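Posting for a labmate who doesn't have an account.
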Amino acid sequence: MSRYWNPQLLALSPYVPGEQPRSRDLIKLNTNELPRGPSPKVLEALRQASDDRLRLYPDPESTRLRETWAGQLGLKPEQVFLGNGSDEVLAHTFKALFKPDQPLLFPDITYSFYPVYSQFFDLDFECVPLAPDFSLSLAEYRRGNGGIIFPNPNAPTGLFTPLQQIEELLQSNTERVVVVDEAYIDFGGESASGLIDHYPNLLVIQTLSKSRALAGLRVGAAFGQAQLIEGLQRVKNSFNSYPLGRLAEVGAVAALEDVDWFEAMTGELVQTRDSLSASLQQLGFEVLPSAANFVFTRHSTCSAVTLYEELRQRDILVRHFKQARIDEFLRISVGTPEQCAALLTALEDILA
């Protein structure tokens, strides 16, 4: 069938998402979903919105959601761009804001969608090596570029880069866009969104998939000064003028408004993450300091492949990346305390 494809497709290496098993009996610690369900207020809002209004197109500007999100971040609605998950927001960003005359810069160990989008949009790119301790070396980005993008906290390492270093990069890189991908920001560290009014080339991207437990609704956003948002809108309106459905917007607004639930869930997860990290270290694991809802870890004597396969045989899914420098690491999503206890018991059994 490939003889009917656009020839460009033959050279693409698509992104491979984490496994989504059909069995509900597995302990699923491989895709960084929140282990608890969404706020009850979200579920109630979705029930109330599930009526004959679904025959109507949604608001193409998602006005209420933009106003709600902007208000929480101290921004204006015109500084908010919405998309069908942060992956779609990222795609529009690659098309709208990165220049093709010089290479795009991002870390060598990072979100694996970045090289896929670069290839898809025909952008040259260079991978900037992380430091030996896997921290982000932002000083290495101070050179000619077509744009800069990196997650903060980084994925899959989980390490957070202080805002002072990001601001220093913005001050030295004024002619091209700097994108900070904050999918995991709610689990540690401070958002760069507070810098937006000071730097016209800063774009911050967030999602409700992680800390609000809405991965199934697909809601992402970008925040920046109005001229950046206008560029994203031009791409969106040339591609899909209705990216968010009516239910997605209703659920997203309810999630953002339920601050008490959000703080309780993220607080529980951070506490579980820190406890899991300490327990793994007692079992002989090295654990990188995580500011995300996962840990990145390797064992001193047992290979990552062995651990991954043995855990899978015990119905526990984690993520293993077959990539240089990190092929001995596992990325483990932080589950409920009960799920983490089952994981630790399985690891004790395997290591014994």
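Reply:
Got it, the structure tokens are right above this. DSSP finds ten helices and 13 strands in the chain.
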